[in-house]
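lol forgot to send this yesterday, sorry. struct tokens for the thing we talked abt
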């Protein structure tokens, strides 16, 4: 059982709770997002074709497994859930780049500037946009 499965105990989990669990699970392993970011741009270009095909086969199996769980949790079809799972990885890579700014911990920041920083945090961006994507996939594929 992986960390995602451990954290998803309610089969009727709301979209927001699902997205929050997905984000926290992905971020819990400090190496997951950096590896995901490098996967297509660096790693995939520096392995043999045989290794690439083998790893993509394993990836398909994992996506299918996660999509099956997601379909049940979010009351989606398997096709919708598969599309969602694939999209979440791309969204995660994109939004985590917003957390690359300088650390201002311990600094006095005006409230309006802090609110701006908070609105661009990867967690905020991921949560809002992942929920929008779920809604869009449901609408598009229904």
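and heres what i got for the seq, position by position
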């Amino acid at each position: 059982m992986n960390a995602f499965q451990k954290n998803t105990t309610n089969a009727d989990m709301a979209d927001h709770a699902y997205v929050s669990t997905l984000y926290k699970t992905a971020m819990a392993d400090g190496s997951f997002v950096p590896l995901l970011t490098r996967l297509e741009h660096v790693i995939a270009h520096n392995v043999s074709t045989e290794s690439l095909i083998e790893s993509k086969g394993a990836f398909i199996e994992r996506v299918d497994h996660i999509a099956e769980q997601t379909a049940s949790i979010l009351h989606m079809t398997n096709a919708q859930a598969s599309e969602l799972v694939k999209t979440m990885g791309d969204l995660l890579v994109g939004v985590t780049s917003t957390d690359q700014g300088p650390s201002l911990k311990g600094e006095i920041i005006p409230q309006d500037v802090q609110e701006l920083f908070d609105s661009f945090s990867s967690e905020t961006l991921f949560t809002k946009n992942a929920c929008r994507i779920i809604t869009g996939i449901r609408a598009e594929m229904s």
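The chain has one domain: 9-141. anyway ping me if u want another try
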